[in-house]
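Please complete every field before forwarding. Incomplete forms are returned to the sender.

SECTION A: IDENTIFIERS
Entry label: holo-458
Bound molecule: magnesium ion
Molecule representation: SMILES string

SECTION B: INPUTS
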Amino acid sequence: MFETSMTLSDLMFLAKGAGMTIAVTFFAVTGGTVMGLLFGVIRAQISPWAALPLTFVLDVFRSVPLLIQLVLANAFQAIAGLNLPPFATSCIILALYTSAYCTEIVRGAIDAVPMVTRRAARSLGLSWGQDMTYVVFPMALRVALPSWIGLTLGVLKDSALVLWLGLIELLRSGQILVTRLQEPMFILLVVGLIYFLLSFPIARFGSQLEKRWREND
Amino acid sequence: MIEIKDVYKSFGTLEVLKGINLTVEKGEVVSVIGGSGSGKSTLLTCINGLEPINSGSILVDGVEVHAKTTDLNKLRRKIGIVFQQFNAFPHLTVLENVTLAPRKVLGMSKPEAEAIAEKQLAHVGLGDKLAVYPGRLSGGQQQRMAIARALAMSPEYVLFDEVTSALDPQLVGEVLDTLKLLADDGMTMICVTHEMTFARDVSDRVAFFHKGIMAEIAPSKEFFNAPQHPETQKFLSNIRS
Ligand SMILES: Nc1ncnc2c1ncn2[C@@H]1O[C@H](COP(=O)(O)OP(=O)(O)O)[C@@H](O)[C@H]1O
Ligand SMILES: [Mg+2]
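SECTION C: PREDICTED COMPLEX
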């Protein structure tokens, strides 16, 4: 039979790491989504020329590997004397990284709302803000949701890179246990399982919502 | 009263309206016919300020639509418009489609808005579809819903842009009947249309657009019995043959 020297307290240690993964992911996705909404609306509403500076900055966040962004940001904040804890630096960089992708999702979803539908809304006397709130966002949400769920699951996994700033999140906790217990296969299996358990409800939530919306079509 | 005075409008280098003059009196029904690309739809979207104009002016009850100081959201309450393409809000039920603007723009309470919406929807024959989502409606039903949605704002003018041309032939009649009822009620209407029988029987005057110019406008009997402009004659004979 299968034997392991992993104890309950080791499992608790992994759970604590998972807690850190959840916290970093939560702040990154929340902050990234708020910024992505803002930037996405700007990108969809103003001319591509006027949005160029924003587009450029977001492209940088999308194309430079996240690991490099984290390490450089951490170094710069130290030089600048900000004295940010690694947790804050990690959340900020991950949120910006998330916002860069979220912006594209939001812009695409807003562009997918037919012009004539928006004109119909404005013709009824709805202001730009009312059109956005009651027509564009609800319609765009249905388009954006699958990509947004995908982004969130991606960030959950990419958040492992914050271990480079010394944060003990789920993957790092696993590494520490591997070094101590010398059971890499089993521990990685458990860590992988925990990642799955974190992801599964998010994916389910997304497909449930999609199903409910589809029933109306 | 809608007063269109010497209106020019371009999209980039393409001049779409070349000096349009038209006055529509309260209670009048004016049909606009003409070839595709002649600027008919553009004129309607200029009237409610969805499109800017290059020169000239459009006045609705004396208010200049394109003046910087004009509150367009307010002005649009009294100008309904129904488009050729289906434009239901797909995430809202039929009833919610119709109550949205009365509630958010006019600030009506939910029961108040629903009472009006139910009346308008019953009027266009959709009284049994209140809780249905637009995706489940036929094209003709969607257009009738769009008409009810515009009417729920109690507009003083309604602009119709070829509301039947995206419909299967057997659904055209039900929508035209709705328009006819509205005209009989005394609504002021500008109808861009390809339905010549409708234009002749329902409208007071008919205008013919050709390449951005209003080539001819006349009382409907006159227009169809004795068209003056050669382009009108050509257009009408092409349709009749
Ligand atoms: N938003 C737009 N941008 C550029 N060109 C347009 C736009 N809307 C209409 N046009 C052009 O203006 C001309 C007149 O269009 P339109 O008013 O829709 O004609 P009609 O309704 O008489 O068929 C067409 O050549 C059309 O391609
Ligand atoms: Mg047209």
